[in-house]
Amino acid sequence: MAVTALQKPKAEKARVFAWEGVDRRGNRVKGDLRAASVAIVRADLRRQGVNPTKVRKKAQPLLGGGKRKITSQDLTVFSRQLATMMSAGVPLVQAFDIVGRGHDNPSMQDLLLAIKQDIESGTAMADALRKYPIYFDDLVCNLVAAGEQAGVLDVLLDKIATYKEKTESIKGKVKKALFYPAAVILVAIGVTVVILLFVIPQFKAMFSSFGADLPAFTLLVITLSDLLRDYWWAAALTIGGTVWGIGKLFQRSRKFRELIDRLSLKIPVIGSILNKSAVARYARTLSTMFAAGVPLVEALDSVAGATGNIVYSNAVMKMREEVATGQSLQLSMRQRNLFPHMVIQMTAIGEESGALDEMLAKVADFYEEEVDNAVDALSSLLEPLIMVVIGGLVGGLVVAMYLPIFKLAAVV
Q: Can you tell me the distance from the alpha carbon of 197 to that of 225, in angstroms, rounded to the nearest whole number?
């Protein structure tokens, strides 16, 4: 007789419940609560002093099911909220419960409440976070572990929150710097396509009755218009396929990413911003790790992935190998030919005085401000550049269409 193995029941999927009830003062209250079942909602409400009178599943939106991706901004806000609560003396499990249930992103709620359950079962917070490497990198996990071991978790959480806020700020500035050139290109392409598809054919019909040879520039524009109207699908497929192929290659090939990162550092104006942002993130990350008591070699391992550029990441990994053999950090930085002289000198002073974390924090502050100023300058530079580029394209197409008219007027 076959023996059927006992299967472990699957955990119920958490969802949002709308509830109504009466509190200890007799006031009618209502709200939403995320849980796995109605029974859990009722039990949770009773623990909070609420007598539930009605609990029902809340309807989910038709599109997306109420779920959305967890963003770096979500993690940054969570870091600051948790640090604030811990500093105020709120127990860790309760802090996770408050932040998790109060978050407006259901995916983030699920993540935080899952971590809370692990901590409740006796797992260290650092180990609980390591189960989700997509959201919590080695840097955060190492800092949390150091805080737990030293009994200063609230201090380390505050450092993590500050670090997250600073790095998100620098990322936002870099994205802003890259957005303007992309916007110029897209707007210019859009305007050109609209003119070629809808305006040029009207002029072509008018020129067909002239019975005279058209200027070469006009013929070129008309040919481009005909090609785009007849083969727009091929153009769309080519552009879409190229973008998709580059994206896949960027994801799968580290050498290709390194090539792109290396070339991006050499782009006029933009390259300077990317270099300064990489230096700022390097200095901010290493300062935070070193201030938390993480050994320099171990800290550099985490710093490599936080620079945001493979060129700098490879350089930091080589520095880690050299520092591990006893070489000073400033000498190793000097050999990379990537870091500005000021950064190397500040690092040397920090190593000699034993205040490396303070010196690197000052470097990070300086370069973060430099990135901010460079982005503002780029914005001011691109405003007239947008007008010149779009005006040049549109003006060139208009001139191409009016050249036959000018030629005809000269003949008459």
A: 6
Binned average pLDDT, 10 residues per bin, the chain of 412 residues? 41 67 78 74 78 78 58 86 87 87 82 87 88 83 84 84 84 79 80 85 77 78 87 87 86 83 87 90 88 84 82 91 90 90 92 89 90 82 78 83 74 50
Strands 51-57 and 28-35: unpaired
> In the structure encoding, which two tokens stand for residue 96, read together?
């996770």
Residue 56 pairs in a beta bridge with 18
| Dihedral Cα 180, 184, 189, 190, nearest 10 deg | 80
Identify whether the C-beta of residue 159 lies closer than 8 Å to the C-beta of residue 364.
no
Whole-angstrom Cα distance, residue 326 to residue 366?
29
Q: Which residues contact 276 (CB under 8 A, 6 or more apart)?
A: 367, 370, 371, 374
Q: What is the pTM of this model?
A: 0.68
174 touches 368 (CB < 8 A): no
Residue 20 φ then ψ, to 5°: -135, 150
Q: What per-residue confidence (pLDDT) applies to 212?
A: 64
The edge-to-edge listing of strands for the beta sheet with 51-57 is: 28-35, 15-22, 51-57
Task: Provide the 3-class DSSP secondary structure of residue 200.
Answer: helix
Beta carbons within 10 angstroms of residue 282's beta carbon? 30
Q: Are 35 and 113 in contact (CB under 8 A)?
A: no
Q: Which residues contact 229 (CB under 8 A, 6 or more apart)?
A: 196, 197, 201
Taking the CA of residue 223 as centre, how many other CA atoms within 13 Å lie in the half-sphere pointing to its CB? Answer: 7
pLDDT for the residue numbered 28: 81
Q: Give how far Cα 227 sits from Cα of 50, 174, 185, 220, 223, Å.
A: 71, 38, 21, 11, 6
DSSP 287: H
